[in-house]
Amino acid sequence: TSSAGLAAFGSKVWLIETMDGGSAAHVFVSDDGGKSFSNQPTKGLLGGSCTATVTSATTLWGYCIGGNAGYAVRSTDGGRVFKYLPGTTSPNASNILPVSDDEAIFQDETSTHLRVTRDGGAHFSSVLPMYGWGEVAFASRTTWLVLGNSSRMWRTTNGSRTWQPVKAPSVGGRPWRKLIAAVVTTTMMTM
User: Fold this and answer.
1) Each residue of 1-25: pLDDT tens digit?
2) How buried is 169 (Cβ within 10 angstroms: 0-12 exposed, 13-18 middle, 19+ buried)?
3) Burial level of 163, CB count in 10 A (0-12/13-18/19+)?
4) How do beta strands 95-98 and 26-30 pair?
5) Would you give the end-to-end CA distance of the chain in angstroms?
6) Which of 71, 64, 72 is nearest to 25 (CA)?
7) pLDDT tens digits for 125-181?
8) What does the alpha-carbon distance between residue 50 and residue 159 come to, in Å, rounded to a whole number?
9) Dist. CA 91–CA 76, nearest whole Å
10) Tally of CB atoms within 10 A around 190
11) Per-residue pLDDT for 62 more than 80?
12) How many angstroms separate the CA atoms of 117 and 64, rounded?
């Protein structure tokens, strides 16, 4: 079996393909918006599936899953070498959500807190108690929204240094968790 992850920054596109459920991933790079790709040797990506998100032409953040656990990685050389981010080994449903080249949120499925790094993944600190798995959306580099499965919603306007509770809207008595995250995420993508 094989799995693929796709990421882009401007006209640069990365395609990450994993095969055989745990072998090293293959990274293909395009400099012309996906018209053509070349095979780029890479290190540090192992797993049944690896995803990546790009924050600049050289910085990629990723999460690789395999078996019952996964781990977060980061590359600062355009995807040639991915380094493991300490403390991020956790169940497959976890995720790394980059905000910039140095900042990212780590959503650990087993943790009771949302964790943030401001130093490229060298250290993570707990910034917000999470009551159930939630959604995270970025309206800007500093304004973020978090919606927990318990329908509790929080907002930060200073990159997670402080948080304010927000009343999550509901329709027919049921919260619209997925709708809120989709609207804010779409807004971020058009910025």
Assistant:
1) 467 789 999 999 999 988 765 567 8
2) exposed
3) middle
4) unpaired
5) 36
6) 64
7) 988 876 556 788 899 999 998 887 666 788 999 999 999 988 877 766 555 544 444
8) 27
9) 25
10) 5
11) yes
12) 18
